[in-house]
Design goal:
Arc Repressor Mutant, subunit A; elongated; 3-stranded antiparallel beta sheet; 7-stranded parallel beta sheet; DNA-binding; about 260 residues; homodimer; Rossmann fold; 14 strands; alpha/beta
DNA sequence: TATTTTATGATTGACTTCAGTCATATATTG
DNA sequence: CAATATATGACTGAAGTCAATCATAAAATA
């Protein structure tokens, strides 16, 4: 039998709440606590997952982690595999006792993940990404510094005017960054304020390392970030002869094509 | 075949680590990532559960929420009850569209908790406490701004030189703060850098609201924070006639004694 | 070196979860 | 009021998970 929309929504809200409190609830409990059948319980979970409120697991669902960086986690799961290769190469470029900036986004998150597996001694990481900060914190021999700014829940990122200002406090050796697209002209991103921030980072870093997946090659995004003259190291899994930097006198960096 | 203890422990440690990073891992992934059989994977999970490092779920395992801010959550649970009363009073002092600084610590966390229950429209919260930021983020009509600095995992706090510097970017209406002790002379805290930071906040806030539990009355801590002249509002559950401010000509603020 | 201990993988059967299909009752819409 | 849309529960087979048992090989111990 059909049931009023309100009731359905209220129940789903309650389920979301329950998951928040209990972190994990077996399906059977969901049924008994809400007095619904297994089928409906599953449908409710599916709904909440579709709305990115939870992450389903075999036998239940997770809120907690997902709630923190909802969209972030999603992207991560899909793309992490391909980025692992880039990340491993980038990881080996990190110098002991250096200060590194880690850009927000899944590409650099993968790098952070590799660094955690194989830490480099005395490294200071400066970032505006909370997932990266939480991943790296507590790792022996590594210091995490967060930038100031508004905490944007969905992206798990700290951002705003203050972020651009505070990055000036840091003297960065290596900046590990990514972009949404790259072509002969250079690097592109979709948000103007993000680009402004990234430019500030570029200005203040002795070495700029860009990790760019092959899928981004030839693509442009609305805002131009930088030409190839600012790139010291390019890491990509695109076929090396296809890389736009080959036709660039500008580019004087090193290429890791894998 | 038997395997050296070291290897077993190392593998279990790695598994615990993996769970911390990924929050949830299906058994099948555990097997493939560690190159062990299902049986062993289960045994490892059982071990970690016995040591209270994880909570098992059907099909995988969860790292306890507690692990995130270990010491912080501990304190919170013990003391939250008494602080709820103070928090409710403080909550009602918050003005729509104002910018509020929220001090790190359990007392102000309780305030954040109350504010979440009953949000005030258009409030901007500036804080260096990650538990508070994560609690408040996503609440309708409330913006969260984090300060820069080193991320101290155990305390869940952002702190350091940069924290003091970045707080200057903000024009704070109301600062909600606490201290470890208070007496006739004024307020006390145990850490010199924390005090330096708090003084900066005091300098920049139009109104200074201190929430001080009765158990802190008459106590001193190593570092002097401020005399009563800087306190605009005092909220405490101590008996009002006992409060040291009564013998203070300095004190011109308002008292909420409950 | 010989003996004991134990970490492991394979196997088993019971149990749980899952996605899909279908009939039905009720809300919603026209 | 009639027609439509849809939320639900029951049922299904397939797949995943679990705890227990057992043989084995390598580490630990004597």
């Amino acid at each position: 039998m059909k049931v009023a929309y309100e009731l359905v929504n209220a129940r789903r809200e309650k389920l979301a709440q329950m998951l928040q409190d209990q972190a994990y609830i077996p399906i059977s409990n969901v049924c008994s606590q809400l007095n619904i059948s297994e089928a409906t319980a599953r449908r409710d979970l599916a709904f909440l997952e579709a709305n990115q409120r939870i992450v389903r697991t075999y036998g239940g669902a997770l809120v907690e982690y997902n709630q923190k960086f909802p969209s972030f986690l999603e992207r991560q799961q899909v793309e992490l595999k391909g980025k692992k290769k880039l990340a491993k190469v980038a990881r080996d470029l990190i110098i002991p006792k250096s200060t590194c900036f880690f850009d927000a986004g899944t590409t650099i998150y993968a790098l952070a993940f590799e660094l955690k597996q194989k830490p480099v001694e005395g490294v200071k990481i400066v970032t505006n990404s909370l997932p990266i900060a939480e991943l790296m914190t507590g790792v022996q021999g590594i210091e995490v510094h967060l930038l100031a700014g508004q905490y944007l829940h969905r992206q798990g990122v700290i951002f705003g005017e203050a972020t651009v200002k505070t990055v000036r406090f840091y003297d960065i050796d290596d900046a590990f960054m990514s972009a949404e697209g790259f072509d002969q002209k250079g690097l592109w991103n979709s948000d103007a304020t993000v680009v402004e921030f990234q430019r500030q980072v570029i200005r203040q870093s002795s070495r700029k390392v860009f990790c760019l997946g092959a899928e981004k090659m030839g693509k442009r995004a609305p805002v131009f970030l930088s030409d190839w003259g600012n790139v010291n190291v390019l890491i990509s899994d695109a076929i090396s002869s296809d890389l736009p930097v080959y036709s660039q006198a500008q580019f004087k960096g090193k290429i890791f094509s894998i």
